[in-house]
Amino acid sequence: MASTALFPARLAVTEFKLYLREPLAAFFGIVLPLALLLILGAAIPDFRKPAADLGGARPVDAHLPGMMILLSVLTVAFSVLPAVLVLYRERGVLRRMSTTPMRPISMLTVQLVLNAAVAALATVLMLVFGHLILDVPYPPMPLAFIGVFLLGAVTMFGIGLALAAVAPNSRVVQGVGAGVMFPLLFLGGVWLPRPLMPDWLRTVSDYSPAGAFGQALTDVLANRSPSLLHLVVMAAWATLGIAAATRWFRWE
Hints:
By secondary structure, this protein is mainly α.
C-alpha cells in the first residue's frame, strides 16, 4: 500500500518533466497571456484611463487582466489537457496502466492538477508583473477572486475533459479544441469587449461558460460582486462537462 501511494507523486514528477519538454504548451498557456497583458497595457493609452462601465477602474486594472486570465485557462483546458489525454489513450498508455498498481484515474488526476497549476501560475504571474510594471492593483476582493477563478477553471476543465472523452484521436481533438476555444474567447469578450456587444450577443455571452467566467473575473477585479447569474451559469456548465466526461470517457 505504501509503495502504491508513492506512484502518484512519481507520476506527477514524470509528467512535469514531460510538460517541460513541450515549450509551446508553456508558451501559449503562460508566456503569451502575460506578454499580451504587459504589451497591450503599456502600448494602448485608453487602457490606462478610468472607464465608467468599470466603476471608475481602468481597463488595465480589471478588463484586460480578466481577459488574459480567461485566455490562459481556455488555452490549457482546450488545447493542452485534452490533447495529452487523447494521445495517451491513442498510444495505449492508459490501457497498460490498468495492468499495474497505478490506475488510469491516477493519470487523469495528475493531468488535472498539473494543468490547473499551470493556469494558476499564469494568473499569479500576471497579477504580480501587472502590479510591478503597470501599477495594476492586486484583486481588491481576494477571496471572491479565488472563488471565481476556481469555479471558472473547474468549468473549463470539465468541458475540456468532455472533449477528450468523445474525441476519436489526437488530430481531431486539436482541431475541435481550437474550434471550441476561439468562439468562447469571442463570447468571453477577448476580441470584442462585452459592453460593445449588441444586446442579443451579450445575452448569448451571459449564458456561455466563457462569457460568465470573463465577466465574473472582470467584476471582482473591479471591486464588484459577481453576478449570481454568471455564477449559476458556470456551475451549470461545470456540472454538464463533468457529467459528460464521466459518462463517456474511455481509457482505451
